[in-house]
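Chain A, query sequence.
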Amino acid sequence: MNEKFFDLKSEKQDRIINAALHVFSVNGFKHASTDTIVSEAGISKGLLFHYFVSKQGLYEFLMDYCVRYMLFEIGRTVGNEERYFEFQEKLQSAKINILRNYLYMNEFMKKASADRAAGIAGDYAPIDKYNASMTSMINSLKMPSLNTGISASQLDNLVNYTINGISAEEFSRPDLDADRLNDKIIEYLRLIRSMVVKA
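Chain A, predicted structure.
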Protein backbone atom coordinates (compact mmCIF):
# COMPACT_ATOMS: atom_id res chain seq x y z
CA MET A 1 0.00 0.00 0.00
CA ASN A 2 1.16 3.51 -0.81
CA GLU A 3 1.45 5.48 2.45
CA LYS A 4 0.24 8.53 0.53
CA PHE A 5 -3.26 7.09 0.82
CA PHE A 6 -3.38 8.67 4.27
CA ASP A 7 -2.55 12.04 2.73
CA LEU A 8 -5.97 12.02 1.06
CA LYS A 9 -8.74 13.96 2.78
CA SER A 10 -10.33 11.77 5.44
CA GLU A 11 -13.71 11.96 3.68
CA LYS A 12 -12.18 10.46 0.52
CA GLN A 13 -10.30 7.80 2.49
CA ASP A 14 -13.54 6.78 4.18
CA ARG A 15 -15.41 6.66 0.86
CA ILE A 16 -12.82 4.27 -0.56
CA ILE A 17 -12.66 2.16 2.60
CA ASN A 18 -16.44 1.96 2.96
CA ALA A 19 -16.95 1.03 -0.68
CA ALA A 20 -14.30 -1.70 -0.48
CA LEU A 21 -15.66 -3.03 2.84
CA HIS A 22 -19.14 -3.20 1.33
CA VAL A 23 -18.13 -5.00 -1.86
CA PHE A 24 -15.81 -7.49 -0.12
CA SER A 25 -18.30 -8.20 2.68
CA VAL A 26 -21.10 -8.95 0.23
CA ASN A 27 -19.06 -10.90 -2.34
CA GLY A 28 -15.97 -12.21 -0.59
CA PHE A 29 -12.51 -11.76 -2.09
CA LYS A 30 -12.94 -14.08 -5.06
CA HIS A 31 -16.09 -12.45 -6.45
CA ALA A 32 -15.45 -8.85 -5.39
CA SER A 33 -15.09 -6.51 -8.36
CA THR A 34 -12.72 -3.55 -8.28
CA ASP A 35 -14.96 -1.95 -10.93
CA THR A 36 -17.81 -2.02 -8.41
CA ILE A 37 -15.56 -0.65 -5.66
CA VAL A 38 -14.39 2.35 -7.71
CA SER A 39 -17.91 3.04 -8.94
CA GLU A 40 -19.26 3.04 -5.39
CA ALA A 41 -16.33 5.14 -4.12
CA GLY A 42 -16.64 7.63 -6.98
CA ILE A 43 -12.98 7.33 -8.01
CA SER A 44 -11.06 6.02 -11.01
CA LYS A 45 -9.60 2.54 -11.17
CA GLY A 46 -6.19 4.11 -11.80
CA LEU A 47 -6.42 6.01 -8.52
CA LEU A 48 -7.38 2.87 -6.61
CA PHE A 49 -4.40 0.99 -8.01
CA HIS A 50 -2.12 3.97 -7.41
CA TYR A 51 -2.67 3.48 -3.68
CA PHE A 52 -3.30 -0.27 -3.65
CA VAL A 53 -1.30 -2.08 -6.31
CA SER A 54 -3.79 -4.93 -6.59
CA LYS A 55 -7.12 -6.22 -5.32
CA GLN A 56 -5.11 -8.42 -2.94
CA GLY A 57 -3.24 -5.36 -1.67
CA LEU A 58 -6.49 -3.54 -0.98
CA TYR A 59 -7.97 -6.60 0.74
CA GLU A 60 -4.97 -7.03 3.02
CA PHE A 61 -4.88 -3.31 3.79
CA LEU A 62 -8.52 -3.53 4.85
CA MET A 63 -7.83 -6.44 7.21
CA ASP A 64 -5.02 -4.52 8.88
CA TYR A 65 -7.02 -1.28 9.01
CA CYS A 66 -10.10 -3.00 10.43
CA VAL A 67 -8.19 -4.77 13.17
CA ARG A 68 -6.39 -1.61 14.26
CA TYR A 69 -9.60 0.43 14.21
CA MET A 70 -11.73 -2.19 15.94
CA LEU A 71 -9.23 -2.96 18.71
CA PHE A 72 -8.81 0.76 19.37
CA GLU A 73 -12.57 1.35 19.55
CA ILE A 74 -13.17 -1.75 21.67
CA GLY A 75 -10.35 -0.86 24.07
CA ARG A 76 -11.64 2.71 24.36
CA THR A 77 -15.23 1.62 25.04
CA VAL A 78 -14.79 -1.54 27.07
CA GLY A 79 -11.96 -0.28 29.26
CA ASN A 80 -11.07 -2.60 32.12
CA GLU A 81 -14.48 -4.27 32.40
CA GLU A 82 -14.18 -7.59 34.21
CA ARG A 83 -17.77 -8.89 34.30
CA TYR A 84 -19.04 -11.01 31.44
CA PHE A 85 -22.43 -9.47 30.61
CA GLU A 86 -21.28 -5.91 31.23
CA PHE A 87 -18.36 -6.61 28.89
CA GLN A 88 -20.71 -7.97 26.22
CA GLU A 89 -22.93 -4.87 26.40
CA LYS A 90 -19.92 -2.54 26.17
CA LEU A 91 -18.48 -4.61 23.33
CA GLN A 92 -21.78 -4.26 21.50
CA SER A 93 -21.71 -0.51 22.06
CA ALA A 94 -18.20 -0.39 20.56
CA LYS A 95 -19.33 -2.39 17.53
CA ILE A 96 -22.27 -0.05 17.00
CA ASN A 97 -19.89 2.93 17.11
CA ILE A 98 -17.76 1.15 14.51
CA LEU A 99 -20.85 0.47 12.38
CA ARG A 100 -21.79 4.16 12.44
CA ASN A 101 -18.46 5.05 10.82
CA TYR A 102 -17.87 1.92 8.77
CA LEU A 103 -21.17 0.18 8.11
CA TYR A 104 -19.68 -3.05 6.79
CA MET A 105 -16.53 -3.38 8.91
CA ASN A 106 -17.85 -6.13 11.20
CA GLU A 107 -19.33 -7.96 8.21
CA PHE A 108 -16.04 -7.66 6.32
CA MET A 109 -14.19 -9.28 9.22
CA LYS A 110 -16.64 -12.21 9.19
CA LYS A 111 -16.30 -12.60 5.42
CA ALA A 112 -12.49 -12.44 5.59
CA SER A 113 -12.53 -15.26 8.14
CA ALA A 114 -14.82 -17.25 5.83
CA ASP A 115 -12.50 -16.55 2.87
CA ARG A 116 -9.59 -17.85 4.91
CA ALA A 117 -11.50 -21.01 5.83
CA ALA A 118 -12.28 -21.49 2.13
CA GLY A 119 -8.57 -21.42 1.31
CA ILE A 120 -8.35 -17.95 -0.25
CA ALA A 121 -4.67 -16.98 -0.11
CA GLY A 122 -3.63 -13.90 1.79
CA ASP A 123 -1.93 -12.49 4.85
CA TYR A 124 -4.42 -13.13 7.63
CA ALA A 125 -2.06 -12.15 10.47
CA PRO A 126 -4.30 -9.19 11.43
CA ILE A 127 -7.26 -11.58 11.84
CA ASP A 128 -5.11 -13.75 14.12
CA LYS A 129 -4.18 -10.67 16.16
CA TYR A 130 -7.83 -9.66 16.51
CA ASN A 131 -8.94 -13.17 17.51
CA ALA A 132 -6.10 -13.49 20.04
CA SER A 133 -6.98 -10.11 21.58
CA MET A 134 -10.66 -10.97 21.85
CA THR A 135 -9.91 -14.42 23.30
CA SER A 136 -7.61 -12.83 25.87
CA MET A 137 -10.31 -10.34 26.87
CA ILE A 138 -12.97 -13.05 27.16
CA ASN A 139 -10.69 -15.38 29.14
CA SER A 140 -9.92 -12.65 31.67
CA LEU A 141 -13.60 -12.01 32.48
CA LYS A 142 -15.30 -13.04 35.69
CA MET A 143 -18.08 -15.38 34.67
CA PRO A 144 -21.36 -15.13 36.58
CA SER A 145 -22.64 -18.06 38.62
CA LEU A 146 -24.53 -20.07 36.03
CA ASN A 147 -27.50 -22.36 36.48
CA THR A 148 -26.69 -26.05 36.78
CA GLY A 149 -25.87 -27.71 33.47
CA ILE A 150 -24.70 -24.54 31.71
CA SER A 151 -20.98 -24.12 31.07
CA ALA A 152 -19.09 -20.91 30.37
CA SER A 153 -18.33 -22.06 26.81
CA GLN A 154 -22.01 -22.85 26.19
CA LEU A 155 -22.95 -19.39 27.42
CA ASP A 156 -20.36 -17.75 25.17
CA ASN A 157 -21.58 -19.76 22.17
CA LEU A 158 -25.20 -18.86 22.93
CA VAL A 159 -24.32 -15.16 23.13
CA ASN A 160 -22.32 -15.27 19.89
CA TYR A 161 -24.99 -17.20 17.99
CA THR A 162 -27.64 -14.75 19.18
CA ILE A 163 -25.65 -11.65 18.25
CA ASN A 164 -24.67 -13.09 14.85
CA GLY A 165 -28.27 -14.09 14.11
CA ILE A 166 -29.69 -10.70 15.04
CA SER A 167 -26.96 -8.94 13.04
CA ALA A 168 -27.60 -11.11 9.96
CA GLU A 169 -31.33 -10.38 10.19
CA GLU A 170 -30.74 -6.63 10.49
CA PHE A 171 -28.20 -6.53 7.65
CA SER A 172 -30.71 -8.28 5.39
CA ARG A 173 -33.17 -5.39 5.83
CA PRO A 174 -33.14 -2.48 3.38
CA ASP A 175 -33.63 -0.06 6.29
CA LEU A 176 -30.64 -1.10 8.43
CA ASP A 177 -30.65 0.93 11.61
CA ALA A 178 -27.73 0.91 14.08
CA ASP A 179 -29.83 1.93 17.07
CA ARG A 180 -32.46 -0.74 16.39
CA LEU A 181 -29.72 -3.36 16.04
CA ASN A 182 -28.10 -2.26 19.29
CA ASP A 183 -31.38 -2.18 21.21
CA LYS A 184 -32.34 -5.65 20.01
CA ILE A 185 -29.00 -7.20 20.90
CA ILE A 186 -28.99 -5.59 24.35
CA GLU A 187 -32.55 -6.84 24.90
CA TYR A 188 -31.50 -10.41 24.06
CA LEU A 189 -28.30 -10.21 26.12
CA ARG A 190 -30.39 -9.26 29.14
CA LEU A 191 -32.88 -12.02 28.39
CA ILE A 192 -30.07 -14.59 28.22
CA ARG A 193 -28.67 -13.25 31.47
CA SER A 194 -32.01 -13.65 33.21
CA MET A 195 -32.28 -17.25 31.98
CA VAL A 196 -28.78 -18.56 32.73
CA VAL A 197 -27.51 -16.72 35.81
CA LYS A 198 -28.35 -18.08 39.25
CA ALA A 199 -30.80 -15.87 41.12
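The chain has a mean pLDDT of 93. The longest helix spans residues 55-78.
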